[in-house]
Design a protein that fits this description.
Layout: H1 19-23, E1 29-34, H2 42-51, E2 54-57, H3 63-66, H4 76-87, E3 91-99, H5 105-108, H6 114-131, E4 138-143, H7 156-161, H8 164-176, E5 181-186, H9 194-209, E6 215-218, E7 221-223, H10 229-240, E8 245-256, H11 261-279, E9 284-289, H12 299-302, E10 306-307, H13 320-334, E11 356-366, E12 369-378, E13 382-383, E14 386-390, E15 396-401, E16 404-408, E17 411-415, E18 422-423, E19 428-436, E20 447-448, E21 451-452, E22 454-455
Length: 456
């Protein structure tokens, strides 16, 4: 398959901008889970293509789908999703590599030594990530590793391999595609509670070990009327403060059926609260809704008497929840998708960025290292960016995310990845890294495109 290219799909101009058009200027993606069996439905396919700039395989990339027999892979569904994304200028969010559920029978009911099971797991990760190297931008490497009390789920992998299976999965994924962003993903972790605290402790431990984890996904399978946007924002921020990317990965908000206008309006307010929470956190890279239409949702099959959880109704008509999502992006700066021929937008990647300000924050520190989160705000739009700063003598880069890093002496240069090079006026650049040999210094001066940025 050809390498992915990014850009809007050619679509007819609607009276109102699409979700992807209003999301683009905010620097966030807006995605949906795609049901492979529905891509032949023209209405479904058109909505998926025109409204979203990121797609996640609902089931086609899960273990039982891609490796139904040991060592025998079926790439048909995954390839269709990647081809669809490439045709429509979309990112691909890979879901999921190591999970206790939807395993093939040979794995779920097979008996293996610890060594053999670890090899099976890492071979699967290596093969699947390698298959889509350069074509999947983010992976849910490990999914749903925790119980509600914050203890580790007693999955087949944990029972035999202990918590080390998580680190091993991430290392295998990084080796298979060094440029993909690697996430751990879970549900009921949206706010601070026992489960999210367990996840937080694990992520801290992985970072301290130097495990290549780039982000944390928060599913957000929620209930109408029980959504606390402020608590969601605060929890996203505490994980972002570790120097990680965060994302809303599986958003739907279900209600007790039948739906009525009051419930639909409350659902819209709840969708808006989740979107606002993400948009208020610089490191929140985007939002994926788990499905398009209520008719295709997984919710009624799992939660008896509940449903209507998606932004479109059973007839593929946008609901108030759809409008709420769009309004959230507009309020965050996505009101004008921008004119690609605007003469005020710089075309030269090295053109100075104009006024900028930067925060250089130590989110974690220990004797031999630190975790740093950097956010740069620019007053002018930029196409491709270059950020530079100095580390103390003897301090070296150990790991970085959301950028391409190089170090010469004490000088560190960070340039954009393929997915985050365009930043609108008033937008932000966010990346993070880990140091070795000592800690970075809080408030280190930063330059953008060679220009000194103000602090703060």
């Amino acid at each position: 398959m050809a390498a992915v290219t990014f850009g809007f799909a050619a679509t007819a101009q609607a009276a109102d901008p699409s979700l992807r058009e209003v999301a683009d200027p905010t620097g966030r993606f807006i995605g949906t889970a795609v049901n492979d069996s529905l891509l032949n439905d023209s209405t479904y396919r058109n909505i998926a293509a025109t409204e979203f700039d990121s797609v996640t395989a609902e089931n086609a990339m899960k273990w039982e789908s891609v490796e139904p027999q040991r060592g025998q892979y079926d790439w048909a569904g995954g390839d269709r999703l990647v081809d669809f994304a490439q045709q429509n200028g979309q990112l691909v969010y890979g879901h999921t590599l190591v999970w206790h559920s939807q395993m093939p029978d040979w794995l779920e009911n097979g008996s293996f030594s610890d060594t053999e099971l670890r090899e099976i797991m890492t071979d699967h990760v290596t093969t699947q990530v390698g298959r889509y190297r350069g074509e999947v931008q983010r992976w849910d490497v490990v999914n749903e590793a925790f119980n509600e009390d914050g203890s580790f789920r007693q999955s087949k992998f944990y029972q035999q391999l202990g918590a080390s299976y998580i680190a091993d999965s991430f290392r295998a994924a990084r080796a298979a595609d060094p440029d993909a962003k690697l996430f751990i993903n879970d549900y009921n972790t949206e706010t601070q509670n026992a489960k999210s605290d367990g996840l937080y402790r694990l992520v801290q431990d992985l970072l301290a070990q130097g495990v290549p984890i780039d982000g944390v996904g928060f599913q957000n399978h929620l209930i109408v009327g029980n959504v606390n946007g402020s608590a969601i924002r605060q929890n996203l921020q505490r994980f972002a403060d570790l120097g990680l990317e965060v994302a809303v990965t599986e958003l739907d908000i279900r209600m007790r059926m039948p739906a009525d206008s009051s419930k639909l309006q409350q659902q819209a307010r709840d969708y808006r609260a989740v979107a606002d929470a993400c948009l208020a956190v610089d490191a929140c890279s985007g939002i994926t809704v788990w499905g398009i239409s209520d008719r295709d949702s997984w919710v009624p099959d799992v939660f008896e008497g509940e449903g209507a959880a998606c932004p479109w109704d059973d007839n593929y008509r946008p609901k108030p929840a759809y409008d709420a999502l769009r309004d959230a992006f507009v309020a965050a700066g996505g009101g004008d998708p921008g004119d690609p021929d605007d003469p005020d937008e710089p075309d030269d990647p090295d053109e100075p960025a104009g006024d900028c300000s930067a925060t250089f924050q130590i989110s974690n520190r220990w004797d031999a290292g630190s975790v740093v989160a950097v956010t740069v705000r620019t007053d002018r739009s930029v196409n491709d960016w270059r950020v530079e700063f100095d580390l103390p003598s003897g301090v070296t880069l150990a790991n970085g995310w959301n950028g391409r890093f190089s170090q010469s002496g004490t000088r560190v240069t960070v340039t954009n990845e393929s997915y985050n090079g365009t930043v609108p006026a008033g937008g932000t650049i966010s990346f993070g890294f880990q140091t070795g040999g000592g800690a970075a210094e809080e408030g280190t001066p930063v330059t953008l495109g060679g220009q000194n940025c103000a602090t703060g």
